C-alpha cells in the first residue's frame, strides 16, 4: 500500500490515495498500526482520500486509537494539497466531502504546488444537544450555547465553552496552557460523562484580542501539535466570551493558524500551511497476517 506522510502545523497524518489503492479492509486497525511512532510510520492518525459522487474527493479520518472522526481541519488542508498536486482535481476552490458535509477550500499556489489553504469550515454548532454535551445551555444567544459554564474535573472547576465544528470541542481559557492542564486535565475532559461522544479539549491563553496561545488534548490522539477544528472552536469561544475579536491568530506548538468567524455568513474560515513530508510503502499483506 502506497502512502504519503503530510502535516498541517505539525498535525501529522498518514494519507492513502484510495483513487489508486484498494480501500483497507480494516481501516481502524490500520490506523492504530501506522500511527505508532515506534513500530509504525508515526502520526496522529490515518486519512483516506477517496472518490466522491458529490465533490472532488472524500476524506475519511481515523484517529491514532482507530476511532473515526467527523472532521479534521489540518487534515483537510493536506487532502486539498494532495488532490491538486497529484492531479486528481486541478482547480481552486476544491470541494471535499467530509463527515461534516462538503467543504470549500481555496488554494494558495506557488510554483504549481499548493502551499497554504483557506478552508470554509461552515457554521459553528452551538446547540448543546448537537455538539453533543449534556451541560446545560446558559446563554441568551441563539441556540442557547454553553458559555463559561462550570465543569468539575476532580478538584478543579473549569469554566468551559462548548462548540462543535462537526466534531465536539470543550474550550477552557486559562492563565497559561501548562502540562498540568493539557496532560492531566485534558484526558479527563475527553471522557467526561457530559460528552457522550467524548470531546476534544482546548486550553487557551489570550495574548490580545487578536492573538491566543493554545494547546489541545485531541479526542483519540492525545496531545497534538495543532488542531484545526479546535482552533476554529477557540475563535468562536473567544467571541462568545468577549475575550477576542472575530479575526485571530492562534499560536499552537506546531505553528500558527489564521481564523475568522465571519459575521456576514456566520461561517468560520481557517488558513494554514499544508506540507508533504515523504512517501513510502506499507506491507499491508504482512500486516494483515
Provide a short characterization of the protein structure.
By secondary structure, this protein is α+β, with helices and mostly antiparallel strands. It is 18% helix and 41% strand. It has 2 domains: 2-120 and 273-278, Diaminopimelate Epimerase, Chain A, domain 1, CATH 3.10.310.10; 128-270, Roll (Diaminopimelate Epimerase, Chain A, domain 1).
What topology does this entry show?
Elements (H helix, E strand, L loop, with lengths): L1 E7 L2 E7 L9 H9 L9 E6 L6 E7 L4 E2 L3 H13 L8 E5 L2 E10 L2 E8 L28 E5 L2 E9 L3 E6 L5 H12 L9 E9 L2 E8 L3 E3 L3 H13 L6 E6 L2 E7 L6 E6 L1 E7 L2 H5 L1
Parallel strand pairs: 2-3, 4-6, 11-12, 13-15
Antiparallel strand pairs: 1-2, 1-18, 3-4, 4-5, 6-7, 7-8, 8-17, 9-10, 10-11, 12-13, 13-14, 15-16, 16-17
Amino acid at each position: 500500500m502506497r502512502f504519503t506522510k503530510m502535516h498541517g502545523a505539525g498535525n501529522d497524518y498518514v494519507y492513502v490515495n484510495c483513487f489508486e489503492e484498494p480501500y483497507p479492509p480494516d481501516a481502524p486497525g490500520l490506523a492504530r498500526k501506522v500511527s505508532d511512532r515506534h513500530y509504525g510510520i508515526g502520526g496522529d492518525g490515518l486519512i483516506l482520500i477517496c472518490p466522491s459522487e458529490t465533490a472532488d474527493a472524500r476524506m475519511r479520518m481515523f484517529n491514532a486509537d482507530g476511532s473515526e472522526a467527523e472532521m479534521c481541519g489540518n487534515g483537510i488542508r493536506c487532502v486539498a494539497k494532495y488532490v491538486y498536486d497529484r492531479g486528481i482535481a486541478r482547480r481552486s476552490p476544491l470541494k471535499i466531502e467530509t463527515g461534516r458535509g462538503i467543504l470549500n477550500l481555496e488554494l494558495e499556489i506557488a510554483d504549481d504546488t499548493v502551499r497554504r489553504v483557506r478552508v470554509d469550515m461552515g457554521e459553528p454548532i452551538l446547540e448543546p444537544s448537537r455538539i453533543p454535551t449534556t451541560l446545560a445551555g446558559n446563554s441568551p444567544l441563539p441556540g442557547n450555547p454553553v458559555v463559561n459554564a462550570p465543569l468539575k474535573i476532580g478538584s478543579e472547576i473549569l469554566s468551559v465553552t462548548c462548540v462543535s465544528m462537526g466534531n465536539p470541542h470543550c474550550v477552557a481559557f486559562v492563565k497559561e496552557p501548562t502540562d498540568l492542564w493539557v496532560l492531566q486535565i485534558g484526558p479527563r475532559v475527553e471522557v467526561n460523562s457530559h460528552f457522550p461522544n467524548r470531546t476534544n479539549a482546548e486550553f487557551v491563553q489570550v495574548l490580545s484580542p487578536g492573538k491566543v496561545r493554545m494547546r489541545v488534548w485531541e479526542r483519540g490522539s492525545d496531545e497534538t501539535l495543532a488542531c484545526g477544528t479546535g482552533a476554529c472552536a477557540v475563535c468562536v469561544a473567544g467571541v462568545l466570551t468577549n475575550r477576542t475579536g472575530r479575526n485571530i491568530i492562534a499560536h499552537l506548538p506546531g505553528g500558527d493558524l489564521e481564523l475568522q468567524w465571519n459575521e456576514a455568513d456566520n461561517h468560520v474560515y481557517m488558513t494554514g500551511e499544508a506540507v508533504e513530508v515523504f512517501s513510502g510503502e506499507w506491507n499491508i499483506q504482512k500486516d494483515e497476517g
